[in-house]
């Protein structure tokens, strides 16, 4: 079944089916609810509903059927979308000027009429989209991992790394820190930390696990006190800020001791194996490694459907606004060199919107990054602390705040400008 659903043609048809459903719903509203009941008005309703469903289908195809293209606003709205209109133009003209009027004149119900037009034009749309819009206008993704160009305010100026050059040509460092915020996690904090430290020991990775107890009201702190007695790689501190996920992570990022740091969730949703992959990928010289659950090789298990939908829509919005190729900004589980954390300070998020602030600031300020697929599993114990209703406006605030920095700060916070100023002052 997975092989069948992975077929581009099947995805195209499913995406087109959704757009067709939207088309039908819109024309129904216009004809039956808003009184578009003459031949001219029915055709106008057909044109309006087609245009809106066409735009919807473009974004469905760009995200799901032909992923990997540019999300730069200029490319998106001045090149890709017009080309998509052009590729669909023949089919649209066929439906508007020939199929719909003739079938309407024959007395065919407008819903059936619209559905026939969709089916006739689908094959034309696929062939032209595949050859004109989504392949030839964008470079095909390579199987080889590459650095994504930073979407900052200018080219990154080459810097000499402070890491020690290792024999395999990468960049080594002495200590890896893992910051784990924990609020009322008595059911999972011990197995989470134990699984991580055992994996790091098996890979001979020198690490510290820094748990930030976010003023828990259960036995979390008591368990941590016992844990540090038996595991020298673990330490904990109590969050000295007010309660909140963002505050707890900020506390951890102000107190970790490693040369690189990963933010890891306390509920075992993040895979220890992925931490190892982060570690070795970072040694290739990247400033950040940003995992994605939604690229080839990425996996999610037991993701609540409503949260998954909100997640995909939020990340699509961020991709469009910033012109990103990266599609999983909102996930906290990522790894950064110490210099990146220092370079994105101060952090201002109090809550889960910190998961957006950290990677977006790193990208906008010009740090290099790459993406690898990661695995995510829904928590098996405890209660999720993320409340979607409470976080919507906070996420939007952070996105707009960093967007303003990107386009209006004139590069004041970009790493290249900081380096140039340092040279002048020196």
Summarize this, please?
This protein is an alpha/beta fold and 426 residues long. The protein contains 14 helices and eleven strands.
Q: Provide the number of structural domains.
A: 2
Distance, first to last CA: 62 Å
Strand content: 5-15%
Helix-strand sequence? HHHHHEEEHEHEHEHEEHEHHEEHH
Order the strands across the largest sheet as they lie in space.
5-4-3-6-9-7-10
Please name the CATH architecture of the largest domain.
Alpha-Beta Complex
Gross geometry: elongated
Fraction of residues in H or I helices: 40-55%
SS summary, helix count:
14
- Number of DSSP strands? 11
What is the CATH topology descriptor of the largest domain? Answer: Spore Coat Polysaccharide Biosynthesis Protein SpsA, Chain A
Please state the structural category.
alpha/beta
Radius of gyration: 25 Å
CATH superfamily of the largest domain: Spore Coat Polysaccharide Biosynthesis Protein SpsA, Chain A
Average pLDDT over all residues: 81
CATH class of the largest domain: Alpha Beta
Q: What can be said about the biggest beta sheet?
A: 7 strands, mixed
Segments where pLDDT lies below 50 for 5+ residues?
1-6, 136-172
């Amino acid at each position: 079944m997975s092989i069948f659903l992975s077929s581009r043609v099947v995805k195209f048809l499913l995406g087109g089916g959704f757009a067709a459903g939207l088309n039908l719903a819109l024309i129904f509203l216009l004809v039956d609810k808003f009184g578009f009941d003459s031949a001219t008005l029915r055709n106008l309703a057909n044109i309006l509903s087609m245009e809106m469903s066409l735009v919807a289908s473009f974004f469905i195809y760009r995200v799901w059927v032909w992923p990997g293209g540019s999300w730069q606003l200029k490319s998106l709205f001045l090149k890709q979308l017009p080309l998509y209109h052009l590729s669909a133009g023949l089919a649209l003209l066929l439906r508007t000027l020939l199929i719909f009027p003739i079938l309407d004149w024959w007395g065919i119900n407008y819903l059936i009429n619209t559905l026939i037009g969709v089916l006739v034009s689908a094959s034309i749309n696929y062939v032209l989209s595949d050859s004109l819009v989504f392949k030839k206008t964008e470079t095909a993704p390579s199987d080889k991992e590459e650095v994504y160009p930073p979407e900052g305010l200018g080219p990154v100026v080459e810097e000499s790394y402070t890491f020690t050059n290792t024999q395999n040509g990468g960049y080594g460092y002495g200590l890896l820190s893992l910051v784990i915020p924990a609020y009322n996690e008595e059911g999972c904090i011990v197995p989470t930390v134990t699984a991580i430290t055992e994996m790091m020991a098996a890979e001979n990775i020198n690490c510290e696990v820094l748990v930030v107890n976010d003023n828990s009201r259960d036995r979390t702190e008591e368990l941590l006190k016992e844990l540090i007695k038996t595991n020298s790689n673990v330490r904990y501190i109590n969050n000295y800020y007010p309660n909140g996920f963002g505050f707890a992570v900020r506390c951890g990022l102000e107190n970790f001791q490693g040369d690189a740091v990963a933010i890891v969730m306390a509920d075992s949703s993040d895979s220890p194996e992925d931490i190892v992959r982060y570690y070795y990928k970072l040694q290739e010289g990247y400033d950040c490694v940003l995992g994605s659950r939604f690229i080839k090789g990425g996996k999610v298990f037991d993701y609540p459907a409503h949260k998954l939908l909100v997640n995909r829509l939020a990340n699509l919005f961020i991709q469009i606004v910033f012109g990103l190729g990266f599609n999983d900004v909102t996930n906290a589980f990522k790894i950064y060199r110490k210099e990146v954390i220092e370079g994105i300070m101060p952090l201002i998020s109090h809550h889960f919107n910190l998961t957006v602030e950290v990677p977006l600031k790193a990208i906008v300020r010009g740090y290099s990054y790459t993406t690898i697929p990661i695995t995510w599993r829904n928590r098996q114990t405890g209660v999720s602390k993320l409340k979607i209703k409470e976080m919507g406006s906070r996420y939007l605030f952070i996105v707009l705040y960093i967007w303003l920095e990107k386009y209006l700060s004139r590069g004041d916070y970009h790493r290249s400008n900081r380096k140039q100023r340092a040279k002048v002052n020196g």
